[in-house]
Amino acid sequence: MPKEIHTRTVALTLNGKPRSLTAAPHWTLQRALRFAAGLTGTKHMCDRGVCGSCTVILDGRAVLSCQTLAVECEGKTVQTVEGIAAEPKWQPLIDAYCRHDAMQCGYCTPGFLVSAKALLDKNPNPTEAECREALAGNICICGTYPRHAEAILDAVREMAKEA
Ligand code: FES
Ligand code: FES
User: Fold this and answer.
1) Which of 40, 135, 148, 150 is deepest in the core (most CB within 10 A)?
2) Position 3 in a domain
3) Domain of 107?
4) Ligand 1 first shell, C-beta below 6 A
5) pLDDT for 11-32, tens place per residue?
């Protein structure tokens, strides 16, 4: 007979809004985002902390949500790719990804976008090397690597025009 699992309520700020998520104590943040919050943009790929597909921004820092327990996020601020896409400020980044074809199957793309946004939060005018370094933890099986830095640098130029 399996033991009963007692769920917890985790109160956090998710994409700018207060939310309470019901999660089992062993649930990762990635799992809670998908199954308790209904947000499917944060991808589940390796589940081992090596691919970056599950990247979210937790209290201003890019983290791997498959390596973060949901219960650890009580009182914290989480931003997912959906929250970034909802902010008009970041539309130039998304447009640049499309212009540069920085995706093929697209499965890894949300993780790359979140890492790129976390970089630009801290460093709004990065060099190509800094872009590559910020994305070093993101793996793309389709091999789109050269296009990400190009897209980010193009987005920076577009954002500067709009400022
Ligand atoms: S699914 Fe989290 S790092 Fe790969
Ligand atoms: S675009 Fe397919 S895994 Fe990156």
Assistant:
1) 148
2) no
3) 84-162
4) 44-47, 49-54, 64, 66
5) 999 999 999 999 999 999 999 9
